[in-house]
Amino acid sequence: MSSIPMSDRDREDMIRANMPLVGHLVREMLGRVPAHVNRDDLTSAGLAALVTAARAFDVERGIPFHRFAAARIRGALLDELRGLDWASRSVRSRARQTDVARQHLTATLGRTPSVAELAAHLGIPATEISSVEDDVQRAVVLSLQGFTTGSAEDMVTEPTMGPEDLLVHRERIGYLHNAIEALPERLRIVITRYFLNDEPMSVIAAELGVTESRISQLRAEALMLLKDGLNTHLDPDQVSGNGRPDGCVARRRASYFAQIGTKGTLSTRLARTSPQGLPMAA
User: Could you tell me if 81 and 37 are in contact, meaning their C-beta atoms sit under 8 angstroms apart?
Assistant: First the structure.
């Protein structure tokens, strides 16, 4: 017996119901690409793919629409990324060197290094450090697993995840929320407003009464704490050392890591996302 074809109204309702999926996938990708990638361009490509997916969707295939659409949207976002002018290999190398130098100095000094200290360690004039930071901002691919670089294909997650992988993914998102909540106040403000609220550094700097350079330092410090905080609970072998194990910096880090575990349970962490791994409304 043939099935009743979907009406245009049904497809329109399906598109409206799944528009948050586009926003989720765009946000997921923006966390893995250089800062110059335009959110609006990715969103437009994702919405166009959602409409195309709704037109091509056949309920008789037995595939949930959100999964069918997600594959189409990710493909469209990947196509959009392929059209971008990616940073040169030399810029990527400088980005890695800058990050390694910053992490080394942070571990040695027990604090975020100044611009002069970072420039001296890299063997370049202090006047050139701004240029290096600009290149890093454009070329370094940010993620909470650390700073990595890769091709456009490397930045897009697999089209589908199995039940076990999806559960781990949802738990990681829950731990991320807990880790942000446990950050010292000023670091939490910077991370929340810069990454979650998409506010420019100039606005955050003005309201906190510091320079944009200081906001950049706070952001780098917070990302390192978040990375090690997550790894402490999810992948302890990946936690980096930071100064003397009995020093005050190590004690503050240990206290922060412990607080993450008290901020939630498996149930509350999974409640941050839907069974499909999409963000739940606040």
Answer: yes
- With CA atoms as reference, report the closest residue to 153 among 141, 161, 144: 141
SS3 call for 147:
strand
Identity of the residue numbered 153: E
Q: Which residue has the tokens 């670089």?
A: 149
Enumerate the H helices of 112-200 as residue ranges: 115-122, 129-139, 163-182, 185-191
Q: Measure the CA–CA gap between 267 and 265, rounded to whole angstroms.
A: 5
Q: Pull the structure tokens for residue 59.
A: 């309920």
pLDDT in tens, 45-99: 899 999 998 888 887 777 788 888 888 898 888 877 765 544 545 555 666 677 7
List pLDDT tens digits, range 4-60: 567 788 888 888 888 888 988 888 888 776 666 778 888 898 999 999 988 888 877
Amino acid of residue 141: V
**Dist CA 261 CA 282 (whole Å):** 21
Q: What share of the chain is helix, strand, coil (3-state, %, to 5)?
A: 70, 5, 30
In whole angstroms, how far apart are CA 120 and each of 54, 97, 126, 137, 272? Answer: 56, 13, 7, 20, 44
Beta-ladder partners of 279: 273
Inter-residue contact 225 to 260 (CB < 8 Å): no
Give the bridge partners for 273, in sequence order.
Answer: 279
First-to-last C-alpha distance (Å) of the chain: 44
